[in-house]
Write a structure and sequence with these properties.
heterodimer, A: alpha+beta, Ubiquitin-like (UB roll), DNA polymerase, domain 1, 2 domains, five-stranded mixed beta sheet, 5 helices, globular, B: Aldehyde Oxidoreductase, domain 4, Aldehyde Oxidoreductase, domain 3, Aldehyde Oxidoreductase, domain 4, 22 helices
Amino acid sequence: MTELSINGVNKTHDGDPAMPLLWFIRDEVGLTGTKFGCGVAQCGACTVHLDGNAVRACVTPVAAAAGKNVVTIENAITDKVGAAVQASWRKLDVVQCGYCQSGQMMSAVALLTRNKTPNDADIDAAMSGNVCRCATYVRIRAAIHDAAKALA
Amino acid sequence: MGILNRIAGQTANAGDATTGALINVSRRNFLQTTGGLALGICFGPVACSTEKAAVPAADIAPFVPNAFLRIGADNSVTVIAKFLEMGQGTFTGLATLAAEELDADWAQVAVEAAPADAKKYTNALLGGQGTGGSTAMADSYLQMRTAGASARAMLVAAAAEQWKVPAGEITVAKGVIRHAASGKEASFGQFADAAAKQPVPAPETIKLKDPKDFTLIGTTATPRKDSQGKTDGSAMFTQDVKLPNMLVAVLAHAPKWGATIKSVDETAARAVAGVVDVVKVDGVPGTTRAAVAVLARNTWVAKQGRDALVIEWDESAAFAKSSNEISKEFKALAAKPGKVAATRGDASAGLKKPAKAIEAVYEFPYLSHAPMEPLNCVVDLKADSCTIWNGEQFHTIDQMVAAGVVGLKPEQVTIKQVYAGGSFGRRASSKSDFIVEATTLAKAARAKGIDAPIKMIWMREDDMRGGYYRPAFVHAIKAGLDAEGRITGWQSRLAGQSIAKGTPLEQYMIHDGIDHTSVEGISDTRYAFEHLQVELHSVDYPLPVLWWRSVGHTHSAYAMETMIDELAHAAGKDPIAFRRTLLEKQPRHLKVLELAAEKSGWGTPLPEIAGKKRGRGIAVHESFNTFVAEVAEVSIDASGQLKVDRVVCAVDCGLAINPDVIKAQMEGGIGFGLAAILKSEITFDKGAVVQGNFGDYPPLRINEMPAIEVHIVPSAEKPSGVGEPGTPVIGPAVANAVFAALGKRIRKLPFGDQLSA
């Protein structure tokens, strides 16, 4: 049995410990903001925070999250950086189809948490694992700068 | 009657139902259907239908003036969208049109998806309920405004009656109904009940605003209606639908088109803890691949079960070609005369003795749409009903086809449209392929005694290898110049698959053997060529192909615009000056061309970047009645590494409804097109698709995205679409910039590593 916390709520999993965290979050816990895009950590749609670090939930076994705290997009608002990122995303109307955006924002929150004033190269480095087929990248970049300004 | 309705009618006649039955949906049923949204599916940020609109606070029936609006006693305004929101801002656009004439406050407006109902919700430009061809705003511009104006008139009439004042003295602004002289004012909600009792105004009495009085259309006061839900995790996609007792299906698909199941050993799959059942899903030749589905309560378990299946496939009748063979075949065809698709003057005479002759062969690969949300579909099949949850793009056809598969009448099939995680054309399936697969699976499962809703989920590899690609094409072009640098003749010979052939669309899209979408952008070019000949070889392959964001323009604009650039250079002329002469009588082309040139600083030197060669290129193209010019600036290092640094885009899409959405669509369309020309390619190895995931079908990433400036031409013309037209122009703009930098022409896509050679 695996015990972990999702958005501050204790959860237990007694199935396959190798099951990726993504499917535990989506199918068992029922939080669907975290998306399935590729299953092999190549698109970042499933990005969540594991003890504050951005990880790809589709390749992170539930067992690797034992005793840890997972934060998903649904709880991003409770964090100052998360709230600022969401606000900037809305202010600049970043989203198009929206499917990748939970992952984009979770990566952006992780970036802004450790680097309060990222430059374009920092953004490229932190965000290039998150794919957006609608190519909303111009606005993602602008929204990260906007959130950084709001947090300063 | 348009294409989609005709197909629907035909399908209905072939089955056991009638089109009449489909369209006979009463208002009562309509309300019940939308009431079904209480299941937890909602779109809007304000009056999320599950929380407010669908369950009015005080048992007061909402005011439903027409099929497109619902105004609640709680003051919510719900716009019913007949189109799919798949990223292009369609919901926001529809809401803008209705709210403008209703004089609603933008904050009180939410959007909800319409059910499948061809009578109420036909797209006049497609001829059936469906989203595509960048038609939503063009189709709805008057319809949604009229819906808003009609509702406004009824609210005003109700207020006039109660306040006992002349309706003409009542004003409405930002959701407030006001009578200045008496100082009376009220919200829409306060009059929703009374307005519902007013007669619906006759269409000829409805007066629409003069565009100079618009307060929402053409402004930035209309932020996207889907931003909230798509940034807090609450937006509902097919992938997110969860129903009581629901099973998840993950499938093993035949590795090649046309392969069938020889044998299945289910033992290991059934041994996976949690696997509920294994169901064979027969392929429909030319439409779906044969498959075996593993059902479980949880996606991971279903996938583990799927991976444990041992299947022997019969590939004896399967498509078995490899990409090099395909390329050779298409090139050989394009070298020979084909079926004539367009003729102007006498191209052979014009090409007989030009001062300069240029010949070039262009190769375009198969492309996958690869939307971020892999294809999926939820089906709840009962004895006498079938409910489908889908990012629904082709309601009318899909409803008919699903009914045919499960053996019900179309009106027994309910489609619940949720957000689509991208489409780029893929979810508008000409053969309803994934709907066919999901309903075939549901039927087979039910036959085995499984009475549960089933969510079919394609893994990324299922999606990437699932066909319905942008067809590969070869263009062989011959063009000539006279001594003054004027074009003496142009001949294009194309070879590739038709997206219509073998589909229900064939009889409406193919005329005299020509699928116009194969040659569009060349056969109808606005360039003043005196002598033009376009010939086509439509190749018969059993491989399903489909429209892909901007359809034929995806390849025709590249061939046309890079060849024009080549001719301009051969004529010793500036590429813009060269085009200007050819577009003398095309004011809208000229306007975007000049605007892009001016804003990009065309003709001024590019800032140097140490160790890199730089170049600037331009292209202009019309598609879907929208005109786009793009100037690309590139830099290339010594190893051949290309970076597109900046793109300046000018667009004329008629009257701009949501300028910020238009800009976003140009940005996104450019990024999408850039991925394709730089790196995307689906290849075949003896019929099997080589690529499977984003590792070998690399998408564009943020570090590769150029800075983009979009300039909108002010226009009072009828609004036209923006979802597609930004895409086809970027390829040739970048290719022409590469030529400016290196003097090298790229004629085979994708670019790949051709610049380092």
